[in-house]
Amino acid sequence: MELVCPAGSLPALKAAVDEGADAVYIGFKDDTNARHFAGLNLAGPKLKQAVDYVKKHDRRIFVAINTYASEGRLDHWKSAVDKAADLGVDALILADVATLEYAAKKHPNLSRHLSVQGSATNKEALNLYHQHFGIKRAILPRVLSIAQVKHLCQASPVELEVFGFGSLCIMAEGRCHLSSYMTGESPNCNGCCSPASHVRWQETEQGLECRLNDVLIDRYKDGENAGYPTLCKGRFEVDGNIFHALEEPTSLNTMDLLPELRDAGVCAIKLEGRQRSPAYAKQVTGVWRHALDRLGNHSTLQIEPQWTEVLDKVSEGSQTTIGPYHRSWQ
């Protein structure tokens, strides 16, 4: 299976390549990118440096143009597609059908991967994207059980990639209606959930408080880890109790499932985290490279304790889950 790693900056890209990523995925420094955080992503000469570094090491580079084009601004997304093609990248990661159609017609020889933002969860949807837009690969949403992933692998007309590690989203893969409601900025159009311009941190006598558009979403005691402030993982008072009412802050970790995912026919494991540091890219890539190399053609995978220790340290709330993969009710 191919190891696809995140790169939100040139140092992160180099770290991922050096640690053994088979492919890295990046985004431009604009709102065509669903991880459009301030201070991150690539533009100008750094884009060519990134492509050159990846090619020099005989790896692959994908560009995520995975937000949805707003009315009257499709040319902006078309320009992003053209720019990626001119750079000589190996694939585009797309979600919007208008952008997909443009890429398919203008650059038919450039591989197109359906973004997780496209939320294709059944063979009919995959067939449609394959027939109309010639996608070569689809990244499955993090809402499917392992049984559903196996079933889709048997029926899919295209390669399937799944998330192996990183943050979980309780919404329809990035379409965070909670964040949209609270800030008035849709992640699918403006490029990120909980935009930094709406986040406010404040030390108080009760602890470190975090507010999103002035609404208190969490309060941390001294020494308590404070994660990225998303509404879905905030703590709220319900019936007199304060707890994570919607979702616990935890990260996805499917390393235990690697033999099953490989046997099912999954072609690539994706690590989440383009908003994270170069140190994160180095650590998670190194651990997953070791795991995939050890797995090889073996029927089981012996997971080293130090791998788990590294992943736990960079996980939300220092805890991990296999999330929807284990939900038998699905």
Automatic annotation (TrEMBL):
One of the protein's GO biological processes: proteolysis
Q: Name one Pfam family in it.
A: Peptidase_U32
InterPro entries found in the cross-reference section:
Peptidase_U32 (IPR001539), RNA/ubiquinone_mod_enzymes (IPR051454), UbiU (IPR043692)
Q: Which cofactors are required for activity?
A: [4Fe-4S] cluster
Its domain of life reads Bacteria
Alphabetized GO MF terms: 4 iron, 4 sulfur cluster binding; metal ion binding; peptidase activity
Residues engaged in binding [4Fe-4S] cluster: C169, C176, C193, C232
Which pathway does this chain act in? Cofactor biosynthesis; ubiquinone biosynthesis
Which keywords belong to this entry? Answer: 4Fe-4S, Hydrolase, Iron, Iron-sulfur, Metal-binding, Protease, Ubiquinone biosynthesis
Q: How does it assemble?
A: Forms a heterodimer with UbiV.
Q: Which HAMAP family match?
A: UbiU (MF_02232)
Give the protein's function.
Answer: Required for O(2)-independent ubiquinone (coenzyme Q) biosynthesis. Together with UbiV, is essential for the C6-hydroxylation reaction in the oxygen-independent ubiquinone biosynthesis pathway.
Say which family it is in: Belongs to the peptidase U32 family. UbiU subfamily.
Write the protein's name: Ubiquinone biosynthesis protein UbiU
Its taxonomic path starts at: Bacteria, Pseudomonadati, Pseudomonadota, Gammaproteobacteria, Oceanospirillales
Gene that specifies this protein:
ubiU
